[in-house]
Design goal:
41% helix; alpha+beta; membrane; 12 strands; single chain; two-stranded antiparallel sheet; LytR_CpsA_psr; Aminopeptidase; transmembrane helix
């Protein structure tokens, strides 16, 4: 064949055509596999590296609107200056979730027509930037001065701190704790323990470090038994875990703090993040707070973006039991003073890690209970 003839006039044999195309096919296949590999690496590695950002995006896209509506229903403001969470707040939501702030956690155990008293009182300081939380447990029988009682008929000016909620709801509880600890309460959150059971069940249970069987034995207490070393505990068991009080006030408040931490761990799982609207709906009337929905959503995303569950430090106010007209818990002045100084450091954004060390032991080792295993004058469970 004449090599000088036009290209379109050339006729190639089957072998020549095959030989000419083979290298091109290999090259195309190699390039295709390379592209596919790059896509897999980008999506896979990117999905891993930016998994938190993707979770936040999913949260904003699918959950935020529904959650906001539910949280708006739980918003109950109180008369409170300062940062606040409502219309009069002095800082933006973005600023609020970067600065240390305090939250008074009030757990009530109201049943049917009973007068509501706070079974759990925890003053907490949240440091969003370094992912740390301080929990100060205030024994419910602590003998303190009530704030605001002169305006309420039939109340006492000094009595157990859990009476503040019965006298004047969240407002009086906040005012009384502020006076006791000499620090503002930026926010409060109240939850009725009766709503806790359904929330835990909706999350598929919760892990609890129970190494010995817990059993209510007192004659005037509701009978229950919680088996030890179970991998997961349901809502009823979790409720009984935080209610149990036949050992000591110190142990009981410790269980409250443990439960809070375990719930945080459980909530951060992807499957439970998608249940947030359902969980808030279940909580319903059992949850009240003066934190706005925007603030709580911003705080939730801050937790999602962190690599670990917040590091929790805790302390229970120390004291001893005294008998007056009833059994009371007399707070130790020195421990109270040291706790106030510790709170001051935790609320300071410039504090270092060493400034935030907290003594979480019960110095005296006392149970702070009477011979029957519960505070004298207590009405039982």
């Amino acid at each position: 064949m004449d090599k000088n003839q036009p290209a379109e006039a050339r006729v190639l044999t089957r072998a020549q055509r095959h030989q000419k195309k083979k290298p091109k096919t290999k090259k195309n296949k190699g390039r295709a596999w390379l592209i596919a590999l790059c896509v897999v690496l980008v999506l896979g590695l990117g999905g891993f590296i930016f998994r938190k950002e993707l979770m936040v995006l999913a949260f904003d896209t699918f959950l935020a609107g529904t959650v906001k509506e539910a949280l708006d229903d739980s918003y109950v403001p109180i008369d409170q200056p300062g940062k606040g969470g409502g219309e009069e707040q002095q800082l933006t939501v973005a600023e609020l979730t970067k600065e240390p702030f305090s939250v008074l956690l009030l757990g009530t155990d109201q049943r049917e027509d009973e007068i509501a008293r706070t079974d759990s009182i925890i003053y907490s300081v949240v440091r969003p930037v370094d992912n740390k939380v301080l929990l100060i447990s205030i024994p419910r029988d602590s003998y303190v001065k009530m704030v605001g009682t002169p305006t309420i008929k039939g109340t006492r000016s000094e009595t157990k701190i859990n009476a503040a909620y019965a006298y004047g709801g969240a407002q009086m509880s906040v005012d009384t704790v502020e006076a006791l600890l000499e620090h503002d309460v930026d926010y409060y959150a109240t939850i009725n323990f009766n709503g806790l059971k359904d929330v835990v069940n909706a999350m598929g249970g919760v892990e609890l470090p129970i190494t010995e069987t817990i059993e209510n034995k007192q004659a005037d207490h509701e009978k229950f038994t919680i088996e030890a070393n179970k991998p997961i505990y349901d809502g009823t068991e979790a409720l009984n875990y935080v209610r149990y009080r036949e050992d000591s006030d110190f142990k009981r408040t410790e269980r409250h703090r443990i439960f809070l931490k375990q719930m945080l761990n459980r909530m951060k799982s992807v499957e439970n993040l998608t249940k947030i609207p359902e969980l808030i709906g279940i909580a319903g009337q059992n949850f009240k707070t003066n934190m706005t929905s925007d603030f709580m959503l911003s705080l939730a995303k801050t937790v999602i973006m962190s690599d670990t569950t917040p590091e929790i430090s805790s302390h229970m106010l120390q004291g001893e039991g005294v008998s007056r007209d009833a059994w009371y818990y007399e707070l130790d002045d020195q421990d109270l003073e040291e706790t106030i100084e510790s709170i001051n450091k935790w609320l300071d954004s410039n504090s270092t890690a060493s400034d935030l060390l907290v003594d979480d032991t019960d110095e005296g080792g006392d149970s702070h209970t009477d011979q029957e295993g519960q505070p004298a004058g207590d009405t039982g469970q």
